[in-house]
Amino acid sequence: MIDITDEMRELINSALANGNPCILGTASPTGEPSVGFRGSMMVFDSQHLAYWERAKRAGLAHISANPKVIVMFRDPKARKSWKFHGHATVHHDGPIREQVMARVVPQELVPDPERLGFAILIRVDRILSPRGEVLQQREDTAAAP
Question: Which of 4, 10, 47, 127 is the most exposed, having the fewest neighbouring CB atoms within 10 Å of its CB?
Answer without folding.
Answer: 10
